[in-house]
Amino acid sequence: MTRPYTLHHVPGQHLTFKDREQIAMIYNQNLRQPAYKRLSLRELASRIGLPYSTLHREILRGRIAQPVLHQDKEYWEYSEHIAQDHIRAGAQNKGRGMRITNLIASLLAIKIKNERKSPAHARKELLAEGLPFVPALSTIYAHINHGDIGILHGETPYHPKRRTKRCVTVRRAWKKPYHLSIEDRPDLSLRDEFGHWEMDTMVSGVHGKGGLLVLIERKTRFYLIVKLRRISQLEVLRALRYLIRSGQMKKVLSITTDNGCEFLDARQIETLFSKINACLKVYYTHAYAAWEKGSVENANRHVRRWYPKGTDFRRVSVQAIRALQNFINSIPRQILQGATAHEAFLAVA
Asked: Which carries the bigger pLDDT value, residue 4 or residue 122?
C-alpha cells in the first residue's frame, strides 16, 4: 500500500507558497474536526508527505490566533500568508551584518551630503580625527549602494548616468594652419613629467556672460580656477597673465585645449609663456572629442557640484572661487596614494 502523498515536495528544497496553501487547507480542516476524529501532527505529516520536524516548524512559523464563537477562548490556526511573510523577512536579513557603526554612518552622511565631500575624502578625515572602527572605502561604498547609511547614490560627488545615443550631425571645426593637433603631442600617457597642463572654460547660464578659466596639471592633478568677465581671447590672456605673475604656473611644458573661440590664438598664448618656456607648444584636441583632455573635464564636475549648469558666474565672488579651488586641491586622491593635489604639487614644483 502506497502512502497518500499530498505534496510533491522534493527533499532539500524550500516550501513554496502553493505548498503552504495546501498545508493551511489540510491542517485547518483537521483542526475543525471533533477531538476523536482529529489526527495528530505526526500522523498529519505522514499524510501530507512531509517530515514531522518540517511540518512542526512550519506550523509554528504561521500560527495565528482565532476566537471561538460564544466562548471566551481562542485556538491557533495556520496562515500561509504569515508564514510566507516570515520567510521573506528572514531572506532580507541574510548575509553579513552592517560593519559600520551608527556614529560613523551619521558622520559620513554629514560630510558627504552637507559638506559635499567624496567618501574617500570623508573617510580620510575620520581617520585623522582618530575615530575607531572606520571601515574600508569599499565597505562604505557597499553600504551606500545598499542604502544603509542614509546616502543615495546620486548624492556622491561622481555618479555616472546612463545616456541614450543621439544621432548628431558632426561638423568639422575650422582650424588655423599653424595649430598643432593632439596627434603631434608627445606621448604623455604615463604622466611621469611635471609641467603638462590641460585648459578649458566653463560658461555661465543662458543670461550670463561670465565664466571660469580652468587648468589642471596632468601629473599632480593640481587645479587652477580664474574668474572671467566674459568668454573671449582677451579675457583668457588676462587670466593666464595673472597666473604667471602670481607664480601659480612656474613650469609649463605644454598646454592641451579644445577648439573654442577663446583659445584660437595659439601664438599669443605661446608668446605669453615665452619667459617661462620658449619651447612651449599649445595642442588642440579633435572636434567633439572632450575625452582627449579628460583630466580637466573630470575635474570640472567638482565645480558643477557646487555651481550647477545655469549658474551666472558674474554673481560668484572671487573669494568663493578661491575657496572652491582650495577645496578641490585638498581632496585626497587614490591615484596619488592618498595624497592631495596640493601636496603633490608642492613636492615637485
From this structure: 122
**Strand partners of residue 282:** 255
Q: Which three cell numbers stand for residue 321?
A: 572661487
Sequence-distant (6+) residues with CB within 8 A of 181 are 283, 284, 286
Our CA dihedral for 266, 209, 173, 297, rounded to 10 degrees, sits at: 80
**Per-residue pLDDT band at 2 (split at 50, 70, 90):** very low
Answer yes or no: are the C-beta atoms of 104 and 133 closer than 8 Å.
yes
- pLDDT tens digits, one per residue of 115-125: 888 888 899 99
CA–CA separation, 37 and 24 (whole Å): 18
User: 283 near 184, Cβ under 8 Å?
Assistant: yes
Please state, in angstroms and rounded to a whole number, the distance separating the CA atoms of residues 61 and 125. Answer: 47
Distance from C-alpha of 325 to C-alpha of 322, rounded to nearest angstrom: 5
The predicted pLDDT at position 160 comes to 57
Residue recorded with cell 584660437: 264
pLDDT of 70 over the 70 cut: no
Query: Given 3-state DSSP classes, what are the helix, strand and coil percentages for the chain, each rounded to the nearest 5?
Result: 45, 10, 45
Largest separation between any pair of C-alpha atoms in the chain:
109
Quick one: which of 123, 174, 170 has its CA closest to 144? 123
Pairing of strands 211-217, 223-228: antiparallel
Mean predicted confidence (pLDDT) in 287-302: 92
DSSP three-state, residue 217: strand
Query: Using alpha carbons only, what angle is made at residue 53 by residues 52 and 58, rounded to the nearest 5 degrees?
Result: 100
CA angle 148, 153, 156 (to 5 degrees): 110
Cα-based angle 305, 155, 228 (whole degrees, multiple of 5) = 0
The full DSSP string for 138-203 is HHHHHHHHHT-SS--GGGSS--------------PPP--TTPEEGGGS---TT--STTEEEEEEEE
Which residue from 117, 75, 335, 83 is spatially nearest to 216, judged by alpha carbons?
335
CB-based burial label for 228 (10 Å; 0-12, 13-18, 19+): buried
Q: Which residues contact 48 (CB under 8 A, 6 or more apart)?
A: 5, 6, 7, 22, 23, 26, 55
